[in-house]
Write a structure and sequence with these properties.
Layout: H1 7-19, H2 24-30, H3 49-74, E1 78-89, H4 90-94, E2 103-108, E3 115-119, H5 121-131, H6 147-168, E4 176-182, E5 197-207, E6 211-220, H7 233-255, E7 262-265, H8 273-277, E8 295-299, E9 302-312, E10 315-323
Antiparallel strand pairs: 1-5, 2-3, 2-4, 3-6, 5-6, 7-8, 8-9, 9-10
C-alpha cells in the first residue's frame, strides 16, 4: 500500500524542489522498479525446468535404444535424437496433429491415465518399405494405412513401447501397453481434457540417407502426478548410479556360470614343410621346453598362468604356480 504524505511533508518536498536542494532525477532513481513476471493462464506450468530436464535425460536413453533396434530391424543405419521437451495444453497439441496421422494410444502399468505416441506417416511408410525389401522411401501422398500395412507395423510399435518401458525403469517399474492405433486425431480428443497440460517429448529420426520424420510422446501431467517428486536431476543420478551397480552385479552373476576353455601348452616346435609331409606314427617332435620347465596355462587364447603337470586321481592335471603378468 503506498505511503500517504501529510500536508507539512508535501510543503517541505515542494520547497526542496523549488530551491534546487532536491532534483526530480534523484526521486526517480530512488524508486525501485518492480519486476512483473508474465503468466499465461492458457499455458499453465505443471512441470519445473528440473523435471523437464529429467524427462529429457530419461528419453535420451530411449532414443539410443531405438536407434540400435531400428538399425538392426530395418538393416540400415537409423539415427534417433531428442528434438525438444516442452509442456503445453493438450488441446493445443491435438489441434496440430495432421489428418491422417499415426497415433499409438497406450497406458502404463502403475500409472493412471493414457498417453500417446505419434509417428509421422513418412517414417511409418519408410519402415514398411524397408521391411518389405525396399529402400525405405516414404510416400509422396499422405494416406491411411491398409490393414496389411497396419499388421506389419504393429510388431515394431510394440517393440518401441517395450524400449520405452525399459527407459522408464530407472524411475518406476512399468510396462507400456498398447490400447489402440488411431489415424484420425479427432477420435482421441476426449481422452484427455483440452485444458490439461501435457509433456511433449519430440524426437527426430532418420532412416538411411533419404527418409526423415519425427516421433512425439504426449504424456498428460495427471499421469505423472504421483511420480513428479522422482523427476528431479538429483534423484535421477542417484537412481542411475544404483541402477548401474545392479546391472554390473547381474553381468557378474551371469559371467560366473559361463564355461571358458582352459588349455595347458606343453611347448612348441618349428619344422619344415618337407618334415611335416614325412611325419609318420612313432616319430618324435622335440619341443622348446625342458622337462622341469613350468607349462603355460591359457584361458581362452590368453596366457594367464604358469603351471606344473601332474596326476589327479586317474586323470592328468596341472597345478597353478604363478600368474603371467599382462603385457601393457
Amino acid at each position: 500500500m503506498p505511503e500517504i504524505l501529510s500536508q507539512e511533508e508535501i510543503d517541505t518536498l515542494l520547497s526542496a524542489l523549488s530551491s534546487g536542494q532536491l532534483k526530480v532525477e534523484e526521486i526517480e532513481e530512488g524508486q525501485k522498479e518492480k519486476k512483473v513476471k508474465p503468466y499465461d493462464f492458457r499455458r499453465p506450468s505443471k512441470f519445473s525446468k528440473d523435471q523437464l530436464r529429467t524427462l529429457e535425460m530419461l528419453h535420451e536413453s530411449f532414443s539410443r535404444s531405438l536407434s540400435l533396434y531400428l538399425s538392426s530391424r530395418l538393416r540400415t543405419v537409423t539415427h534417433c535424437s531428442i528434438a525438444g521437451v516442452d509442456q503445453l495444453p493438450y488441446g493445443e497439441y491435438i489441434q496440430s496433429v495432421p489428418i491422417p496421422s499415426f497415433i499409438v494410444v497406450y497406458s502404463m502399468e502403475s500409472l493412471n491415465g493414457t498417453a500417446m505416441l505419434e509417428i509421422s506417416n513418412n517414417l511409418i511408410f519408410g519402415m514398411i518399405d524397408r521391411l518389405l525389401g525396399g529402400l525405405g522411401r516414404g510416400v509422396k501422398k499422405n494416406r491411411e494405412l491398409t490393414d496389411i500395412e497396419m499388421s506389419i507395423i504393429e510388431d515394431i510399435v510394440d517393440k518401441i513401447l517395450e524400449l520405452l518401458g525399459d527407459a522408464w525403469s530407472s524411475i518406476i517399474k512399468t510396462s507400456p501397453v498398447r490400447s489402440g492405433i488411431e489415424t484420425n486425431p479427432q477420435f482421441i480428443q476426449q481422452i484427455v481434457p483440452f485444458s490439461s497440460v501435457v509433456a511433449l517429448i519430440s524426437f527426430s529420426l532418420q532412416i538411411g540417407d533419404s527418409t526423415t520424420g519425427f516421433l512425439n510422446l504426449c504424456i498428460p501431467s495427471e499421469m505423472l502426478e504421483d511420480i513428479l517428486p522422482k523427476l528431479s536431476a538429483r534423484q535421477w543420478f542417484s537412481r542411475k548410479g544404483s541402477k548401474h551397480e545392479e546391472i554390473l552385479n547381474e553381468i557378474k552373476r551371469r559371467l560366473e556360470n559361463i564355461a571358458v576353455p582352459v588349455i595347458v601348452e606343453l611347448g612348441t616346435a618349428e619344422i619344415t614343410f618337407q618334415e611335416l609331409l614325412n611325419l609318420k606314427v612313432g616319430d618324435i617332435i622335440r619341443l622348446n621346453t625342458l622337462v622341469m620347465d613350468p607349462l603355460i596355462v591359457k584361458v581362452g587364447e590368453q596366457a594367464k598362468y604358469l603351471g606344473r603337470p601332474g596326476k589327479v586321481n586317474r586323470k592328468i592335471g596341472v597345478k597353478i604356480l604363478s600368474n603371467i603378468p599382462r603385457e601393457e
